[in-house]
Design goal:
The complex is a heterodimer. Chain A is mainly β. Chain A has strands at 5-7, 10-13, 19-24, 31-38, 42-50, 53-57, 64-68, 74-78, 87-94, 105-106, 110-114. Classes of the chains: A mainly beta, B mainly beta.
């Protein structure tokens, strides 16, 4: 069974540009989560999508947005990039079921560098 | 609001020695607790989780953790570590009302020969 996949693995942008990160969940999983892992800040929850809808959002500005497609894959968009957006962005997926009891399976991440 | 504190940012230990990685949480409601491991240049992998029932939870790779409600702790232990256990370990908490995880800042376990 294929795991969670993310693309690209690395992304280099300059300040003010937009970045688009992609995630494909494990087959059968309907929930997708996005986390930011920035140096010194640890892992912080960004967004949760389930069945195509945004279910919850972390404490991030509106320039962080995303969507979930009918095939449950997801896209994270970061507009007006700032230097502090440089981080590893991790996507996770979980199966439909009992919500928070379900294990989240993580992808390898996209490393975003903003110059 | 929930929070997770991992008291040690780094834990150096010799191979075959026991190790304990500490995790404390704060929450006004009952929680689910998780330990994840992140090997270099990889994503996170679930080690174990506590949902309910027995307070001693056994996970993969010989790790176990004990849920202590009175001390709001969920410490991770392994009786004998290997070089391959060198990685960063994250404790996380989930509010039963939500599916999102709140992570601690991580503990780097450094195992040397």
């Amino acid at each position: 069974e294929a795991g969670v996949t993310q693309s690209p693995t690395h992304l280099i942008k300059t300040r003010g540009q937009q970045a688009t990160l992609r995630c494909s969940p494990i087959s059968g999983h309907t929930s997708v989560y996005w986390y930011q892992q920035a140096l010194g800040l640890g892992l912080q929850f960004l967004l949760w999508y389930d069945e195509g809808e945004e279910r919850n959002r972390g404490n991030f500005p509106p320039r962080f947005s995303g969507r979930q497609f009918p095939n449950y894959s997801s896209e994270l968009n970061v507009n007006a990039l700032e230097l502090e957006d440089s981080a590893l962005y991790l996507c996770a997926s979980s199966s439909p079921g009992q919500g928070p009891q379900e294990t989240q399976y993580f992808g390898p991440g996209t490393r975003l560098l903003v110059l | 609001a929930q929070s997770v504190t991992q008291l040690d940012s780094q834990v150096p230990v010799f191979e075959e020695a026991p190790v304990e990685l500490r995790c404390n949480y704060s929450s006004s409601v009952s929680v689910y607790l998780f330990w994840y491991v992140q090997y270099p240049n990889q994503g996170l992998q679930l080690l174990l989780k506590y949902l309910s029932g027995s307070t001693l939870v056994k996970g993969i790779n010989g790790f176990e953790a004990e849920f202590n409600k009175s001390q709001t702790s969920f410490h991770l232990r392994k009786p004998s570590v290997h070089i391959s256990d060198t990685a960063e370990y994250f404790c996380a908490v989930s509010d039963p009302g939500y599916s999102t995880l709140t992570f601690g800042k991580g503990t780097m376990l450094l195992v040397s020969p």
